[in-house]
Amino acid sequence: MRKKIVRIAIIVVALPLLYVATVLLYATVTDFSPPLKEDIQVHGQVIRSANDSIYSAITWNLGFTGLGAETDFFYDGGTVVTQTEALVTKNREGICKFVAANPDVDVYLFQEVDSTAKRSHYVNLVEELAASLPGFVRSFALNYNVDFVPIPFLDPMGKVKSGLASFSNLSTTKAERRSYDSQFSWPTRLFFLDRCFLAQMAKLDDGSDICFINTHCSAYDTAGVMVANEIKRLMNYADSVYKTGTTVIIGGDWNQCPPGYQPKDPKTYNEYILSDDQLPENWRWVADIDTPTNRKMNTIYNPETSYTSVIDHFVVSPNVEVVGVKTINLDFAFSDHQPVRLDFRIRK
Fold first, then answer.
1. Which is it for strands 312-316 and 320-327: parallel, antiparallel or unpaired?
2. What span, in angstroms and rounded, lies between the C-alpha atoms of 15 and 7?
């Protein structure tokens, strides 16, 4: 009897260890390792070319259509891993209706766009957005490509294939993915994003060049070092493009607050404030610091009590005249982020 109990105990201990070892081995062998630079295919055809002197761009982290106002999220202290299919559908349809209802926007820079993932019930959001934006070209760069995310243990996130998606009604010539070299240590890095930015090059009607850069900087970077290194790499690239005579607009989820923003409760959440010193001379941060762009996901959204901040915004090259920047308040109905719109002119 004692031997039987010992055998059972060994099995009870060994099976979880074997599971963990198998998951780690598989994740290591199949780890997504993109190159530092990769040309990205541009799909679609421009039908309505922008020809106004004022151009517009929207940046929006879509929260993979699983982080609407009705949910919390386990990474932020909540409990939900995968939202119900009905709520994911509600979020996806709300996002698509929003972009379809704003036909005057020239460029969309989306983050957390799932192409194939358990958490978004395997719906290809890139294709759904394309259907809502006829006459726009698009490019898509993976930054999260894991066959099986094993956490949490009892309800694993599973397969995730997600990234940055940029849409434009400008005559786009090329797109490229540029990797950030920031990484968490092994084995955490096996199940986290491989951060990058997506640059989309286009020509305006007057023949001049413009580059729209879509970025999603590191989250859960408690020391702020990873984001600082990412911004340095990004701005070195952006400034080199600008020096060729190309206008540059950068939008995205920076996971840090713009200069001039005052955190709501710095004692509870350690939020980093970006600095003008991180930009080349005469480049500018452009943000709406009066309207929140992100909420914490420890609970469902409550406009009275939920912690909010501003981490989605733009950077523009010196030749850009900002006409306006505004966060569009949707009460976080469809994502834990809100869209931010930039209107601008290009100084000759």
1. unpaired
2. 12
